[in-house]
Structure formats: structure tokens, C-alpha cells
Amino acid sequence: MTRWLVAVDKRTCIGSAVCVGTAPAGFALDERQRSSPLAADIAPDEAVRDAAASCPVEAISLVDADTGEPVDLY
Amino acid sequence: MTVEDSPIKLPAAAPSSPDQSVPQFRALLKDRSVVRAELPDGSTAWLVSGYEEVRQTVVDQRFSRALAVAPGRPLQGTEVFAAGSINGLDPPEHTRLRKLVASAFTARRVEALRPRVVSIVNELIDAVLDRPQPADLVTGFSLPLPVQVICEMLGVPAGDVDQFHAWSDTILGDWQGDSDQIMTALTNMYNYFARLIEIKRAEPADDLMSALIAARDQADRLSEEELTTLGCTLLIGGHETTANQINLSLLVLLDHPAELRKLRADAGLIPGAVEELMRYVRLGGGLPPARVTTEDVQLGGVTVRAGEAVLPLFATANRDPSIFSDPDRFDISRAPANHLAFGAGVHHCLGAQLARLELQEAFRGLLSRMPDLQLAIPAEELRFKPGMALHSLCELPVRWGQP
């Protein structure tokens, strides 16, 4: 079964919280208002894919765990 | 925290000076972060002013924009327009539209526009410097800059820019004054975009409207009406907002000469100063976009019942003393990375990165090429346009020294 690896680059994150609003089960902000995934290894999830596609600074990376290739965001 | 039973009354007229309005407002709220208020139209809503509470209101999906602009709700000002646009949707409908445009406004894509923005800034300043003093910075600089940029992005022909500006100005204008005129402007803009879409459909170009048309025609990812409305929304959103953020930021800088001197001495401070200006300036002139709760929610120690309206006060949250020490002090070295001027959550300003870029280059240009830039009339004589949406200056007459 396909798995996705989710990561947020906290140095790039600006705390817009677009991801938290789009996929509340996928992301949360820390006390500095920077995002991280609630789980780093997930079953394919459209809301998480939407969050990655909507990030204003492209700080979210989404990779297919088997192939190591980026997941198509659109 | 206790909550008084009787709601506070919100004054019908917004305070005229954006500088003073936040401390005044805070005094009215008596430092409570969530307060029940009676709005000018007689309806009641929760006013949310605490930083954490405002964040929760705009990020937590239980606070719905779609319910806030649903049929039967009292809509004021630009909320009438929001009701049919991306600004009035919740996920997943909102996400579908947002994804279509998000990639055009990412930090990376916007950064690629920087050289073009710099040259527009320089062309506009050249033209201002050629004019007799005093000159109006609104018509000469702060408005044409974002208008030119967003029109080029969308693919709106330059010759139609003035027409657009007139419509946009009316739409963001005085909703209590003449709503017929505003509805006419909205219809005109909508019809214009419908025609533009037909033209671009026949002859696609390398611009955002052509990309959106392809998303509609090839992938059926949005309806024709959504496509047309999205064009209008992007154009209006990329217009008076940035223009007046430039205007109000300049007024703040001129009012804080020590900070202005620091900025002139070191242009490297400009990005941080832009963030502090975003935090400090109260751009919105009236009530913020409301949310309505989908269920009972705990917010800042009060229970907001399902179906109640909640108003997130971004500018007041940006002066929350528990987050920003000495919050009414303007200090460019603060360079805040966590202000809420662009909102947060799914409705976080789509154009935030573009606005940052335009503001940075606007001030880089103004400070380096117009030394001793100063107001040509006393600040108290500046007039704001009547209306609700934004603190929008009628004119900004300035003088300058020799470069």
C-alpha cells in the first residue's frame, strides 16, 4: 500500500496556517507559529495533498515512500 | 476572565485616524479578548481581539465563512461581494479554487517578478520627479504600482487599467452612500472579465487568466461563473490594499523620524520594517470578515454558541501585549514574523508575498530616490474616502529634496 512522507521546512514556513486550516488532521503549529506534520508517514490523504499545494512558501514536501519521488500536487 | 452581560455598542463611524484607532478600540473592549458587541446594524457578534483567539477564529474550521455570508445573513459592504467569491467559501470548495491560484502567488514565483516590480517603481518615481511639487503620491505612485503589477499578472490590457481602477474604487467605497452605484460597478467589472475570458480563450497568453481558463476548459476544475468572479476578486484584492498600505506606512514612517533615519541609513532593514509596518498599520477601515460557528466552541474563556457571529480584529490582535511587548510602540527592529495583518488559515491573504515584494521595493525606491520626502500639508488635513472597507486616502500630497 502506498505511503506518503510529509515534512515541513520550518525555516521556510511563515506560519500562515493555510495547511492547518486545509488539513487540520495533518498539521499543527508550534508555539512559534511554525507548522509541522502531525504524522510524518501517512496513507495518501487528499487534504494533506491540498495543503501542500496551497502553501504560500512551498514549505511542505510530500514524497512517495516507495519511489522517493515527489507526490503530484495537482 | 468575566464577561459583562450587556454587549458593548460599536460606534457606527470608524475612527478617522487609523493610527489612533487600535488603542481607542482596546479601551472600548476594556482589554477583554472576546467581547459581545452590538453592531451598527443592530445585530450582535463576538468581537475577538486577543492574538491567540483571533488565530483560532481564522484557523479552526468550526468558524465558517460560508455560514457568515449565507443567504439571510445581514451583509455589509464588501461582504456582499464576498458572498459569491472564494472569500465566502469553506474547505473543500474553497480549497478547490485556492489551489488553482496558489501556485501563481508562492514566494518563489513572486520573487521572479522582483526585477519587473523594481522597474515599475523606478518608472513611476521618474514621472513623479518630473512633476512640479507638491505631487500627489496616490495617483503618481502608490496606486499605479500595485495596479500595474496585478494587471500584468492577470493579463488585463494596460489600456483598460483606468477603467478598472474606477470600478474597484467604487466597489471598495461607500456602501452606505450609494449601493446602486456599487452594484453597477460590480456588474460592469464582471461583464468585462467575461469578455476578457472570451478574448483570452481565443488567444491564450502567458498570464494567470489564460492559465485559469485552461484549468476550466481542459480539466473542468471550476465553473465559468467561478472563473469570472475569481478574476474580479484577484483584481480588487491586488489594488487598494497594497496602495493604502504604502500610503499609511509612509505616514507612520514620517511620524517616526528616528526609525525613518535608521531605514534610510541601512536598506537591509527594509524587509523587517515592512513586517513591523504590517503589524502596526490598521489598514481595514470597518468590520472584518465575520465567521459563524458550526457548533458550540470555547474561545478565550467564553462559550460561543453554534450559529453566532464572530469578528476577528486583526489590527487589535497585532497589538496584543502578551505577544508584542510595548505594542503601541513602532519599532522597525522588532521585525515581527508572526503578525496577523495577512490573516491566517485558509483565507490567509493569497497575495501576501506579492504585497511584501511591492512594499519592499516601493520603500527602497522612495527612500533612495526621494530624500527628504515629506508631507506637503499637515497630516491632520489628509482626508480618507468615506466607506467601510479600507483606510483609503483621497490624496497624499508630498514634497522632496534633491536626490
What topology does this entry show?
The complex is a heterodimer of chains A (74) and B (403).
Chain A: E1 4-8, H1 18-22, E2 27-29, E3 35-37, E4 41-42, H2 46-54, E5 60-64
Chain B: E1 8-9, H1 18-29, E2 34-38, E3 44-48, H2 51-59, E4 63-64, H3 65-68, H4 79-82, H5 93-102, H6 107-111, H7 114-129, E5 135-136, H8 137-142, H9 144-154, H10 161-171, H11 179-202, H12 208-217, H13 224-237, H14 240-255, H15 257-265, H16 270-280, E6 291-293, E7 297-299, E8 302-304, E9 309-312, H17 314-317, H18 352-369, E10 374-375, E11 397-399
Parallel strand pairs in B: 1-2, 3-9
Antiparallel strand pairs in B: 2-3, 4-6, 5-11, 6-9, 7-8, 10-11
Helix pairs in contact in B: 7-9, 7-18, 10-11, 11-13, 14-18, 16-18
Description:
The complex is a heterodimer of chains A (74) and B (403). With 74 residues, chain A is α+β, with helices and mostly antiparallel strands. Chain A is built from 2 helices and 5 strands, in the order βαβββαβ. Chain A has helices spanning 18-22, 46-54, and strands spanning 4-8, 27-29, 35-37, 41-42, 60-64. Chain A has a 3-stranded antiparallel beta sheet with strand order 4-1-5, with helices on one face. In chain A, strands 2-3 form a two-stranded antiparallel ribbon. With 403 residues, chain B is an alpha+beta fold. Chain B has 18 helices and 11 strands. Chain B has helices at 18-29, 51-59, 65-68, 79-82, 93-102, 107-111, 114-129, 137-142, 144-154, 161-171, 179-202, 208-217, 224-237, 240-255, 257-265, 270-280, 314-317, 352-369; strands at 8-9, 34-38, 44-48, 63-64, 135-136, 291-293, 297-299, 302-304, 309-312, 374-375, 397-399. In chain B, the strands form 3 sheets. Chain B has a 6-stranded mixed beta sheet. A 3-stranded antiparallel beta sheet of chain B has the order 5-11-10. Chain B has a two-stranded antiparallel ribbon with strand order 7-8. Chain B starts with 7 loop residues before the first strand and ends with a strand. The A-B interface holds A 12, 14-18, 20-22, 24, 29, 32-33, 47, 50, 53-58, 74 and B 55, 58-61, 91-92, 95, 98-99, 102-103, 105-108, 337-338, 342, 344-348, 350, 352-353.
